[in-house]
Amino acid sequence: MPRNVVWTSDTLTPGLATFSTKLDAALGLFMEYNETKVQDYMRTKAPWTDRTGNARQGLFAKAYKHSGAHGIVAYHTMPYGVWLEVKHDGQFAIITPTIQSEGKRIMKDVGKLLTKMASR
Questions:
Q1: How many whole angstroms separate alpha carbon 35 and alpha carbon 112?
Q2: For the chain, N or C: smaller number of CB within 10 Å?
C-alpha cells in the first residue's frame, strides 16, 4: 500500500517567489561594479595618440536598467568622438572593441553569478 507524503515545510516556493527580486538587485550591483572596469578598459586601450587627453578622459561607461534589462552603455563625450570610431575604417575605434572584449568577460561572469545564486 502506498504511503502518503506530507509536506511539513516548503522552502522552494518562497525561494522562487523572491529569486527574481534578488536577481534584479544582484545584476544591478554587478553592472554598477563593471561600469568602472569597462570605462578603464576604454581609456587604457584607446588606440589613438593623445594630443590633449580630452578624448581619452571623455570616454565613459554607465550601468543602466531599461524595461527590466540591465546593461552598460559605453560612450564618448567629446563631439569628435564619433569620428574616432568611424574614420579610417575604424582604425581608432574603441567602443566596438570594448563591447567585444568586455562583453564576453561580463557575460561569463554573469553565468558565474547565476550559478552561485542558484546553488544557495
A1: 18
A2: N
Q: Rounded to an integer, what is the distance from CA 9 to the centroid of its chain?
A: 37
Q: pTM (2 decimals)?
A: 0.82
Answer whether 42's CB lies under 8 Å from 31's CB: no
Residue whose C-alpha cell reads 563591447 in the numeric block: 99
98: CB partners within 8 A, 6+ apart = 38, 41, 42, 45, 74
Instruction: Show contacts of 73-81: CB within 8 Å, 24+ apart.
Output: 74/38, 74/39, 74/42, 74/98, 74/99, 78/54, 80/55, 81/55
Q: What is the pLDDT of residues 56-72, one digit of tens each?
A: 999 999 999 999 999 99
For residues 82-108, give the mean pLDDT. 96
Higher pLDDT, 60 or 1: 60
